[in-house]
Amino acid sequence: MAKAPRQSRHQQDSVDRHVARWTGLLDGMDPEVEGAVTRMQAITKRIKAGDHAAYADSDDTIEDYWTLHALLIQPYPEEATPAQLADACGVTRAAMTSRIDRLVQRGHVTREVDPVDRRRILVRPTASGRTLWERGIEAGLAREKAAFSALDAAELRALNALLRKVVLHLEEG
């Protein structure tokens, strides 16, 4: 494997310094693989931190947004059961009950007994819930676009092509 050209200190990112610390200390560590994985994790971490920060000065929370997002992208986006929402959000049913209680209290969703099957509870978005979700989507898209603004259109396409290749490989495996 060819070595990457040496970079000056001001051209290095935190991942270059991380990889340099570990190179040679761990058998089998490929610095290029470590660099790629750590950079993807760093990008995701910063985007998620921005998502959380967006709700810091609000009565609503990122969990409210995630729950509304799960509700509004369901196969039947006008309603879902608490169990469906818990599964979609990757939380326990007890945690989802707390989230739904909060969203009902804030007026973002309704919780009703299913008129067809009275054993089921249906959660539906309200106009304010839909508005909160739409604002969250718009702001999130803007943060994601800003995160990748260092790349021009051709670079972004090239990055997507490379990442797609990795995802396809993992999905096949």
Describe this protein's structure.
The chain contains seven helices and two strands. A hairpin with a 7-residue loop joins β1 (109-113) and β2 (121-125). With 173 residues, the protein is mostly helical. The mean pLDDT is 92. Helix content is 61%, strand content 6%. The protein has a two-stranded antiparallel ribbon. The chain has one domain: Winged helix-like DNA-binding domain superfamily/Winged helix DNA-binding domain (Arc Repressor Mutant, subunit A), CATH 1.10.10.
List the helices and strands and how they pair.
Layout: H1 14-22, H2 31-53, H3 62-72, H4 82-89, H5 93-105, E1 109-113, E2 121-125, H6 127-147, H7 153-172
Antiparallel strand pairs: 1-2
Helix pairs in contact: 1-2, 2-6, 3-4, 3-6, 4-5
Short descriptors:
173 residues; mainly alpha; Arc Repressor Mutant, subunit A; 7 helices
Unreliable parts: none
Name the helicity range: 55-70%
Radius of gyration: 21 Å
Strand segment count: 2
Mean pLDDT over the residues: 92
What fold name stands as the CATH topology? Arc Repressor Mutant, subunit A
Task: Please give the domain count.
Answer: 1
What portion of the residues fall into strands of 2 or more residues?
5-15%
Shape: elongated
Helix and strand sequence = HHHHHEEHH
- Counted by DSSP, the helix tally is 7
- Named CATH architecture: Orthogonal Bundle
Strand order of the largest sheet: 1-2
Q: In a few lines, what is going on in this structure?
A:
With 173 residues, this protein is mainly alpha-helical. The chain contains seven helices and two strands. It has a single domain, classed as Orthogonal Bundle (Arc Repressor Mutant, subunit A).
